[in-house]
Structures are given as C-alpha cells and as structure tokens.
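Q&A log
Question type: sequence-to-structure
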Amino acid sequence: MLFPKNLRLCFWAAYAITHAASAPAPGTNTSDSCPSALKPSYATPSLAPGYKAQLIFRNLTKPRGLTVDDQGHLLVVQQGVGVSSLTIETTNDCLKVSQNVSVVENAKLTHGITLSGDGKTLYASSAEAAFSWPYDAAKSTADGTGSDVVAITNTSNGDHITRTLLYSSKQENTLIVSRGSESNVDFNALDLTTGHCQIKSFPVGGSAPASQNFNTTGKLLGWGLRNSVGIAEHPVTGGLYSVDMGMDYLTRDGKDISQNNPADEMNYHGIVGKANDLDQGLNHGYPYCQTAWDVDAIPNKGDLIVGNQFLVGDVNNTFIANDTMNDAVCARERVAPVLALPPHQAPLDLKFTADGSEAYISFHGSWDRNGSVGYKVSMVKFAEGKPVSPASESKTAITDIMSNPDVTKCGQIVPYVWNKDCFRPAGLAFDKNGTLYMSSDETGEIWAITKIVEQH
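Response status: OK
Response body:
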C-alpha cells in the first residue's frame, strides 16, 4: 500500500501519533474496499485492530522465503521450482500483481533468500548449499546457473532442509547462514564439527573464498539451536535475533509433557562483526536443555518459571539427569531465550519494522500436537533493541496480527498432507513503504498486511 508522500517517509511514526489520539480502527480485509481483490477459498482471516490485509497473488508452488529488491519487486522462493519476481502495483490503496517473472530455475531451492547490500547479488539456498547470482533488479534477471558460496553437508534428507540466509546490513560483505537439525533429537548438535544446529557468518564478495564449507569455516554465532529458520538483525542496534522451534514428543521423568512444552524461542546472538562480543558463539541448549512454557506440567519442576531451561527427555526417555547434565547445568551453562514463544507453533520468519520498534513472526503452525495451534502472524514490541517484555512475561509478550478464525480447521489431513482451509504463514518481507508481505506455502498465496493510518 502506498501512502501519500507526506506520510510515506514517516509511516510508523504517523501510526503512533494518530493512534495515541483515538482508538484504532477494526482490522479489515481490503476485499471490501477493493472490488477486484482476490478472495481466499477459506474463511476470511481475523485481523488485529488497526491492520488490514489483502490477498494479492495465488497459484504459486509452496512459496517460502521472501525479499524485496530496490525496484520494489517481491522475490519469492518457490520450493522445488526456483525464484520468481512479482511486480506489485497500487491503485487507491489496492494492491495488484501485474507481472510474475521467473528469475532462477532451480528445483533444489528450499527456502533461503537474501540480497547483497547494493542489491546486485542474489543469494538463495538448497539443503546442500547457498548459491549466488549477479542480479539486475531493473530487469528482474539473474545471470548464470548460480555459484556455490557455502557448501552444507546434508546426509539424511530429513525434515529440516531450510538453510536461511541473511546478508548483514551492519557488517559489509557478510552472509549469515542458519542450519537446523536432521531429526527431532539430533545428537550431532553436540559436536561443533558437524555444523548441525548452528548459525554462522561467512565473508562473501571481494577477496572472499569462492566457496566455503559450513562445517569447517565461518564464524560461529550460536549453536544448540534445533531449527532457527527465522533470523533478523535489529535495524538500529544491529543485534542478531533468531526464532527457534522446540522439540516434539517431550518427556520428563517418564511423563509425556509434550502438549504444551517445550516453548519455541527467540534468541539473541550479538552483533555481527563486533569484536569480542560475549553474546556470540553461545550454546542455546538443544538437545538436552529446552525452555519451559507450561511449568505445572513438568515433574520435579523445582523453581522453574516460564522461560527457564530444563533437562528434558525424548520419546524414549533418553536423557537421565546426572552430575554432568541436569537442570542446574541447563541454567548455568546454556543460554535461555530472550523470550519464550508458544510451543509447537513453528516460527518460520522474523522481520523488524524500519525503526526497530516491532518484530513480526510468522507461525507456520503445529503438525503433531493434539489440537492445532499457530497458523498466524504475530508481533513483539521492542525498545532499545530488546523485547519490551522479559522472558518471565513471555505469555503476554505477543500480539496476534493476522490469524485463522477457526484454527481447528488447520493441520494435517494425513501425514504431510495439509488442510487447505487455512493460510499457513512461511516467509515475511517489508517493502520501503511499510507493507508486510507474507507467503502461505500450503495455499500457494501471497498476502499484504498494512497498518491503517487514520486521517484527522
């Protein structure tokens, strides 16, 4: 959505001022005000007050990661297909995709996508590598078949095949890569040389090596991270945050506590490029230590509170407390998240507003919980580069922005076949005007979410 010129440069400030003076307008779907707008095949999404959303494109093949180039084109990874460029036009606050162009044809691409700081290099990833292409935003073209930038060993072809990419806005010529686990309980995560469950940064461009190995090179930013698909730098401080998915089938002392434990997580990894940053390279607990959400369901909980890490067991009750691994070790030697996120909701992306006052999270939704949860886009308030709420207040730290009105209709029909009666958020991307784009992979759609700026 393009705002009048006098509002465009101060989008978020204008919102704060106008809404301080009056109650926000109800959330709306713009199909009412845009007669030509696409209408979803499922129930109209619920929106928080002060927001509106529009379905702008459909019939994509599992759209995942998103980014916006300097010409305003929305670049979309279609899993198993490649990268497409969508040209988006705005008329009277109504958005429309006027052109869909194939930029990269590569059936191995899964999720990750980012652009270099100058916008002239496109990066995207498969399960085995991060690739780069010279990119021309004006023409929406990428040259060649793609050069391997970072090679990633992938031995099991497990469920966690995303390799999220982020070109650092604070450290020049630096590509950040996140690699998750190969299974629910991946003991390779205990060995740094395997590269499993880690976030690293790599030099790219200029005199950087043509191709690097994820396991043996790069700077370690964090480990013990089960599947941190969403990563983002705070636009003001440069601090790197990630959102991580907790384990499934969790037990404790032989009791199944998996319904509402463990929490998913928001973690902090310091500032990329900062020398001697004590927040970099830390162990965030997985697989032995996970984060508490429903504390009362945890046997022998002791003094645990929401956001604390504790020793867990898996479906086979593998982990047994001893002198070298127990709750005290989890608390003392592992790094708890800055926020606990609701369990099993599967955070897939994380994006900050331009001023860093809000972080938006796409919750892909549960797959094995008794009763579906997630399937929504939510927001966390930030101040001075940190979440406003402490970890102990995690349960009230999140505001749902766009959600499915009946989440019981979301989830699997049979294993790995998903109900199409819900949108299922995957990637997020802001454009320069403050519009937040969201991909729904299971329905093959792109949504645009905007704040309602009231005129007085």
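Response note: DSSP finds three helices and 36 strands in the chain.
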